[in-house]
Specification:
alpha/beta, eight-stranded mixed beta barrel, six-stranded mixed beta sheet, 45% helix, binds ligand C2E, binds calcium ion
Length: 610
């Protein structure tokens, strides 16, 4: 049977009753020992929350993150909790100190398993009588400081009792150290949930041909981009502790819950009906999501689930976890609460996964290449710069364009790998050009919005760019407009910081979405690339008026207007007439490999020089 975990908020500073032992990295003292023995006897797991971070009992109690608020003294009333709020006081033992009777107690919260308060109360009564706790403490805690115990050493009876208490504490510490050592391999330190590894082991030992049909693996994926942002680390930790208490409620006998190294939460549970599993999934998801209520701009979509019916799915537990993870990712992308791993889902996932692995190998093996497509001055067709476009020189399939690999990388959250890889190559090329004496040719790099809106974006591009010596204004970042609202702020900040550091920014695919005009007002950029669909209509009257209005708007705002996807000389003429600044398209130049670009630049320059 899976152990139910009891979470306790400890008093770090009540020596020797309950205190935080920095050396042993845990709580020690008479109460922790007593609770550990109680847990052992009753088949619970005991786990102290945020050990060593000060007295957090009030906070943890208020958040309903713990089952027990520990190390309390009657009359002190920690945080003003009372029975009416769903707390039950349980007396552990009493002692006479300085002629006063002190009652030590814990509060059992309503997050605790039913009956815990009664069970613990009964246990405590027997335990304290058996160990004569009251008398022992009366002697041992005569002073609060450890050294203050010396005067009592002369008193024979006291000495024996002190030794008894210390011995009990020490042997408990030793036993617990052993147990913790064993547990640290199995339980996640922060949440007390099983680790992914432990869960796998459990599944291998407990799920077999006979009961497999009953099991479902539900993987809850949490949007880490949000939780891992600096300043939200604490909130992230808090979330996982909260999640642990929620999930615990859905774990019945024969079920387990765990947390993976990637911070996904897994529920491995039995049911006779898949409908029941779907209900359970939705309910857990709703409760986990409710944690983010306060963060008004997020909520929906932060937690998504993948469900793997173990009875139908024939793979190993490892594979079940992997596929249900992918299903959760896919749910997020399709804005669904969950996705079930059925045959077609698995087939599709296998393709994506193998492509991804192949891609990463290709980046390491330097099979990725950059092509450049020239930008020209609309009025003269003079070359001004170029856009870097990723290509994969596949050993069997030949040269592949981004459509073959970018979507898969985006799915896997690996798009930034290719973005920074291209940036490095572009920087190297800009240095080479500078060495050739070419200092007026700019290159633009495409960045996925995910990369651009990441917390570490500026830091990461700076680490690459600072190794090079080309003029910064020769480098342009292209940024696709329209991003999920919750990333807007960061994107905006990154944009400003990037421009402050001398890099130019173009807004790409402008006019493709609905948010374009908003973006133009919101983001100060150096150039706007009109989406290809706008160029496509350059030869119609309506198309012309739209283009002309956008060009006028752009100029009013002081940004360069770039038309991409120009495919006919007619379009070239219209754009020139309308006053567009820069054009780009197959009719002018196709994307070409760097060596070819270098040759063209060399030629055009020597011609100009002649
Ligand atoms: P994009 O940024 O809109 O790039 C322009 C795409 O249009 C390129 O396709 C280019 O080859 C193509 N194109 C250029 N002129 C014409 C034309 O006259 N007609 C037509 N029909 N197409 C034209 P490509 O190279 O396949 O790139 C597709 C998209 O992949 C790019 O769209 C860009 O968003 C993305 N991409 C390329 N490299 C990277 C990269 O390193 N990182 C990221 N995040 N995305 C990249
Ligand atoms: Ca682009
Ligand atoms: Ca574009």
């Amino acid at each position: 049977m899976a152990d139910i975990i009891i979470y306790a908020a400890g008093n770090p500073d009540l020596y020797p009753i309950e205190y935080y032992d920095g050396d042993g990295e845990g709580y020690d003292g008479i109460i922790p020992q007593m609770l550990a023995d109680f847990a052992d006897e009753s088949g619970y797991e005991l786990s102290y929350y945020r050990a060593g971070e000060g007295d957090l009992r009030e906070e943890l109690g208020r958040n309903h993150q713990v089952d027990i608020i520990s190390g309390c003294i009657e009359g002190e009333n920690i945080g003003g909790f009372d029975d009416a709020e769903g707390y039950t006081r349980v007396q552990l033992f009493s002692s006479v100190e300085d002629g006063k009777t002190q009652v030590y107690e814990v509060y059992v919260t309503d997050a605790a398993p039913e009956g815990l308060a009664g069970e613990l109360g009964g246990f405590a009564a027997e335990y304290s009588a058996e160990k004569q706790l009251g008398t022992a403490i009366a002697t041992a805690s005569g002073g609060n400081d450890h050294a203050d115990m010396t005067p009592y050493l002369g008193i024979a009876g006291g000495l024996i009792l002190i030794l008894a208490v210390l011995l009990a504490v020490l042997s408990a510490r030793y036993r617990r150290a052993l147990k913790n050592h064993r547990k640290s391999m199995e339980l996640d330190q922060a949440t007390g949930m099983m680790t992914g590894e432990a869960l796998k082991k459990w599944a291998e030992e407990n799920i077999d041909g006979r009961n497999r049909i009953l099991y479902y693996l539900i993987y809850f994926k949490i949007d880490l981009d949000y939780l891992q942002a600096p300043g939200r680390m604490e909130r992230g930790k808090e979330f996982y502790r909260y999640a642990a208490t929620v999930v615990k409620e859905y774990v019945s006998e024969g079920d387990v819950a765990g947390i993976t190294a990637e911070n996904g939460i897994i529920l491995l549970c039995q049911s006779l009906s898949s409908d029941d599993i779907l209900d359970r999934t939705l309910e857990v998801e709703m409760r986990l999501t409710s944690f983010f209520r306060r963060d008004s701009f997020i909520g929906r979509g932060v937690v998504t689930a993948g469900i793997c019916p173990m009875g139908k799915f024939k793979g190993t537990i490892d594979e079940s976890i992997r596929y249900s993870f992918h299903a959760a990712v896919s749910a997020g992308k399709s804005e669904l609460p969950y996705v079930i791993c059925d045959d077609s889902f698995i087939r599709k996932t296998e393709e994506v996964v193998s492509l991804r692995n192949e891609m990463l190998g290709a980046i390491r093996g330097d099979e990725m290449e950059i092509y450049l497509q020239f930008y020209v001055e609309a009025s003269s067709l003079r070359i001004l710069g170029g856009e870097a476009l990723a290509r994969w020189n596949h050993p069997e399939r030949g040269m592949l364009g981004p459509a073959h690999f970018i979507p898969a990388l985006e799915d896997e959250g690996l798009i930034s790998v290719i973005d920074y890889y291209c940036l490095e190559k572009v920087c190297r090329f800009l240095d080479e050009l500078a060495d050739m004496g070419v200092n007026d040719f700019f290159i633009s790099c495409n960045f996925s919005r995910k990369t651009f809106a990441a917390e570490d974006f500026v830091e990461r591009w700076e680490a690459i760019v600072e190794k090079h010596s080309f003029q910064r204004d020769m480098l342009v970042f292209e940024l696709t407009e329209s991003i999920e609202p919750r990333y807007r702020k960061k994107m905006h900040d990154n944009l400003i910081e990037t421009r402050n550091r001398g890099i130019h920014v173009f807004l790409d695919d402008f006019g493709e979405g609905f948010t374009s005009l908003y973006d133009l007002r919101e983001y100060a950029v150096d150039g706007v690339k009109l989406d290809r669909t706008l160029t496509d209509y350059a030869d119609t009257e309506r198309g012309k008026s739209i283009l002309s209005a956008l060009i006028a708007l752009g100029h009013e705002m002081g940004v360069k207007i770039i038309a991409e996807g120009v495919e006919s000389m007619e379009q070239v003429e219209v754009l020139k007439e309308l006053g567009c600044d820069i054009t780009q398209g197959y009719v002018i130049h196709y994307p070409a490999p760097l060596w070819d670009i270098k040759r063209s630049l060399h030629e055009s320059r020597s011609q100009a020089g002649r």
